[in-house]
Amino acid sequence: MARIAGVDIPDKKQVEIALTYIYGIGRSSSKKILDKIRIDSQKKASDLTKDEISKIKEVIEKDYKIEGDLRREKSVNIKRLKEINSWRGIRHKKGLPVRGQKTRTNTRTVRGNVRRTMGSGRRAAPTAK
Q1: Mean pLDDT (10-residue bins), the chain, 129 residues
Q2: How far apart are CA 57 and CA 109, in angstroms?
Q3: What Cα–Cα distance (Å) separates residue 63 from each residue in 24, 45, 53, 57, 60?
Q4: In whole angstroms, what is the distance from residue 16 CA to residue 32 CA?
Q5: Which pTM does this prediction carry?
Q6: 11: number of Cβ within 10 Å
Q7: Distances (CA, A) of 3 to 22, 44, 45, 46, 101
Q8: Distance (Å, rounded) from C-alpha 56 to C-alpha 50?
Q9: Distance CA 63, CA 22 (A)
């Protein structure tokens, strides 16, 4: 199993998909990385040579913000929004949807799957024998 940026890359997957296991790298950026180094994206991760792995590491470290740095930056941005009491910051504080979704319905995942109607979440009535 290859290790890139502190993440174990799965061997049985194609390199293009395997790189997406790194936080901050999606399909499009993994394609760009592989095109830059001229590695076939259909190649399995287990078939990569040490030289190819080092080239991938080098490109990722030089061009992309990933893993801990990206998570830290994201949390700092959210903290800043909370401190200045912007609308988005207030939504983050309350644990509500931030990007303008309606909340009368369809926000159960954000609210913690709260069921407020009478019939939802009930057990089925016992059947007569």
Answers
A1: 86 92 93 93 90 92 90 95 95 89 77 65 67
A2: 36
A3: 12, 21, 16, 10, 5
A4: 10
A5: 0.71
A6: 13
A7: 10, 14, 11, 11, 39
A8: 10
A9: 14
Torsions phi, psi for 25 (to 5 deg) = -120, 120
Q: Nearest Cα to 1, choosing from 45, 56, 58?
A: 45
Is 83 exposed, middle or buried (CB count within 10 Å of its CB: 0-12, 13-18, 19+)? exposed
In the 8-state DSSP scheme, what is residue 20? G
Record the tokens describing residue 118, joined without a space: 């009478």
Locus of tokens 């401190």: 83
